Amino acid sequence: MLVDSHCHLDFPDLASQVSDILQRMQENSVGCAVCIGVNLEDFPKVLALAEAHHQLYATVGVHPEYTDVEEPTEAGLLKLAAHPKVIGIGETGLDYYWQKDKPEWQRERFRTHIRAAKTCGKPLIIHTRESAADTLRLMREEGADTVGGVMHCFTENRDIARDALDLGFYLSFSGIVTFKNASIVKEVAQKCPLDRILVETDSPYLAPAPYRGKQNQPAYVRHVAEEIARLRSISSEAVTEATSNNFFTLFKHASRPWES
Fold it and tell me: What is the DSSP letter of 208?
């Protein structure tokens, strides 16, 4: 069974379709999906999905793009992360595409998440956009390697991939890897150790070919796995088994819902 390691089923585009989305997951052998928290105000909706459906998990965090929202504290994150269906801290990280002045508050927010993750022992879900050097620097300074995590929707080059892998992090590939012009992403997906790869959709965004430009959903993660298999000249079953095992190795507080 495949695992969609990153989606946003609480977003308005998908929230009204959850029953259909879960059915499509089952039809496409996607046994588990993680609903990612992006701000504290909407976290109750994320958690409610995970509580209501055995095949869904949640994370808690405040995305670096969000400005006019409640600022997280380490104590606050730890309180919310104590719930058994919350398996990670994030989405967190740095985004200099939208925040071009590289504000210090964004870096301090990232540090808060890393410290919370280290305290509760739940891995980080890291977003980086046009900020890879600073993202890795803060990860090193704060000892993120002691808890680990995943570089979500990885789009960086092999040098950044190597540095993240050296810190013990996993790389998660989205539908971008299926895009014809994504040569850098394809190269990293081909060369990255198979035991350090995860797959995701980032639903409702980044739908893979053949659905590019349309609304994404967790069932489509199989197209990501199939493209990685093609790039590596291995079977899609091998990618499914490896990425699923990798997910449960990293997210130790999650269990295989199809076995319960």
Answer: P
